[in-house]
Amino acid sequence: MIGSGSNQPDLDWSQIRETVKLLAVSVAQVEGSMRIGDESVNVLTATFTDMVADMNAIQSLLTTLEPSEQRDAVLIHCSATQEKIYSSIVAFQFYDRLQQCLQHVSVGLKGLSDIIETPSRLYNPAEWLGFQEEIRGRYTMETEKIMFDAIHQGKSIEEALALATHIDGKSSEDEIEFF
């Protein structure tokens, strides 16, 4: 992006270039945060996988021991711990949904940048329509489609979020898959 910036504008200064720069910063922030989050979640996932294997091994060993109150108490704690692990796995799946949504935002911002900095596309309604259809076509979650449609029907951000929250509250439990 060559040309003057808003810190030292001249006759070559362009609000479009400034917009593209801000979009690029937003994309970089989203993608950087996703990378950091992925690293943490990968460590947690490996840890929980190991914990499940360890709990299964402990439980198997315990069942070979003679029945006793102590053995039964430890088996109960093993079961409780396994339930907590499974709850954590569900939380990871919500994180996966978040990652997917942020990836869609990042791709959308990059595409928007491309349209804005290309004059033949910027002023072409067919380019905008095609781009919008491309964005909506990438969505895999119903809440994303609902928000997209609501905004394009003229609803406010708050109204779109309310619609999506209403739908998400009903369906989010159904969308979680257990490992």
Can you tag this structure with a few keywords?
179 residues; mainly alpha; 6 helices; 82% helix
Q: What is the topology?
A:
Blueprint: H1 15-64, H2 69-116, H3 119-122, H4 125-138, H5 142-152, H6 157-175
Helix pairs in contact: 1-2, 2-4, 5-6
What do you see in this structure?
The C terminus is likely disordered. The protein folds into 2 domains: 112 residues; 31 residues. Helices cover 82% and strands 0% of the residues. The chain is mainly α and 179 residues long. Helix 1 packs antiparallel against helix 2, helix 2 runs antiparallel to helix 4 and helix 5 packs antiparallel against helix 6.
- How many domain units? 2
Helix content: over 70%
Beta-sheet strand percentage? under 5%
Please give the count of helices: 6
Write down the Rg: 24 Å
Mean pLDDT, to the nearest integer, reads 86
Briefly note the structural class of the backbone. Answer: mainly alpha
- Rounded to the nearest angstrom, the distance between the terminal CA atoms is 46 Å
Largest sheet, strands/sense/barrel: none
Tell me the total number of β-strands.
0
Q: From N to C, what is the helix and strand string?
A: HHHHHH
C-alpha geometry: elongated
What are the low-pLDDT stretches, counting only 5+ consecutive residues below 50? Answer: 172-179
Protein name: Chemotaxis protein
